[in-house]
Amino acid sequence: MTKKLFVKTFGCQMNVYDSARMADIMRTLGYEQTDTPDAADMIIFNTCHIREKASEKIFSELGVFKPLKEARRKEGRDLILVVAGCVVQAESDEFMKRAKFVDIALGPQTYHRLPEMLAKLERKKAKRLIDVEFPAVSKFDSLPETRSNGVSSFLAIQEGCDRFCSYCVVPYTRGAEYSRPLADIVAEARVLAETGTKDLMLLGQNVNAWHGEDENGKESDLSRLVAAVAEIDGIERIRYVTSYPSDFTDDMIAMHRDIPKVMPYLHLPIQSGSDVILKKMNRRYTTADYERVVEKLRAARPDIALSSDFITGFPEETDEDFRQTLDLVRRVTFAQSYSFKYSPRPGTPAAAMKNQIPESVKGERLEELQALLLEQHAAFNMRMLNRETDVLLEADGHRAGTLIGHTPYMQNVVVRAPQSEKGKTVRVKITKTAATTLEGDIVS
Ligand code: SAH
Ligand code: SF4
Ligand code: F3S
To answer: Are both 94 and 177 inside the same structural domain?
Structure first.
């Protein structure tokens, strides 16, 4: 009898990818994924530590599974609770103390050891297990084959980060930067394409700094990798995230012009529009560097849609610094953005800086910034009205008779379309635009 696995994922796309790979591992042990925790034999919680609320939320949500587990025990069955991800890595001791009913705790670089750990539990060699090592041999070398879970898939090409931005936990939770070899990535992309993937998102914490080995053991770069992936039949759309502004080469910019499968969409976080703050963040570019890259990208691909991340209320950020962020947003204009209040993370240099900004000020600045970003987002969507565009139909819509997909600019579109069109790219005329979604009809 197959067992059931329920996975809940928090955080970034890398965590979504890791969750899919943990499901791949568990499939080899006879577990099938389910979308409710009720009937599950195993629950995996894949956690995120990027901001305070992220980890607090996890502790409160985990609490829900304690009674479920106890009820199961009374029935003489077990429910194995696994917690993975960045919270475990960052706070392993604290974590094991606070969540006593968790059976297995794993870091982002050790989840390939899940089968061994399960076996130990089953042989009653241990009551609870934790593994937060950074192994010398990459987990990628021992993961089982993957498969698509729909038309859009993530593929991790690089992991970890050596940049140490002063606010960020990622270098501590994910470890040192590692680029997977080109051949491994292309092999995984082929399997994904063969099992239904059309839209491929290449992932890395610093994805445009990918420098894996090519077939000859020589260091390669992202433009060559993307060109290799673009050769694969079935892959229609290629995107990559997250890029670091000063790691772009001219070849990478040119691929936006030369490779039609590369989507005209790029997430390029700037964080702040003040050079003083960027320096304190240990971001190694200036606003002028950033704008120069944007200019080149727009010269190569004039319709490219840009998105960004912003942090408001970084320590010592003055009103003037913040005003410079607003000015930068007005100059560059973004199709979509993510913005956050600065959150001091334990152990990061910024958390120890003196002039921390009051929550209320962080909040006011965030509100003002988000209003401007939303205005730009809505304006970008508005421009699509009455236009025709390609839409890759990915999933069922909420309303009957509709499917949901994305434009090449990553806008959500609800399309009136029969089920038979699911997974296909269709020409759509946009008939309605709202702040965050578009609606449209297929044109023949
Ligand atoms: N590697 C990516 C970002 C990864 S984290 C990059 O360099 O851009 C995703 C986003 O979370 C960051 O871009 C940043 O805007 C936000 N973030 C990270 N740490 C944060 C913190 N301590 N407080 C608030 N936001 C933070
Ligand atoms: Fe964090 Fe900076 Fe690395 Fe991005 S580049 S993951 S923000 S340390
Ligand atoms: Fe969160 Fe870890 Fe990603 S902290 S944002 S899940 S790398």
So the answer is: no
Work out the number of other CB atoms within 10 angstroms of the CB of residue 251. 14
Asked whether 173 lines ligand 3 (CB < 6 A), one says: yes
For residues 159 and 61, membership in a common domain is answered with no
Are both 336 and 197 inside the same structural domain?
yes
Pocket probe for ligand 3: among 48, 51, 91, 207, the residue whose CB has the most ligand atoms within 8 Å is: 48
Nearest atom within ligand 2 for CA of residue 171: 8
Q: Determine if ligand 1 sits within 6 Å of the CB of residue 342.
A: yes
Number of domains the chain contains:
3
- Looking at 64, 98, 131, the residue that finishes a domain is 131
pTM for the complete prediction? 0.96
What DSSP assignment string belongs to 145-210? Answer: P---SSSEEEEE-EE------TT--HHHHT-S-EEPPHHHHHHHHHHHHHTT--EEEEE-TTGGG-
Nearest protein CA to atom 4 of ligand 2, as residue: 205
Determine the structural domain holding residue 116 and report its residue range. 3-131
Q: Is the CB of 85 under 6 A from ligand 3?
A: yes
Digit-coded pLDDT (tens) for 204-247: 999 999 999 999 999 999 999 999 999 999 999 999 999 999 99
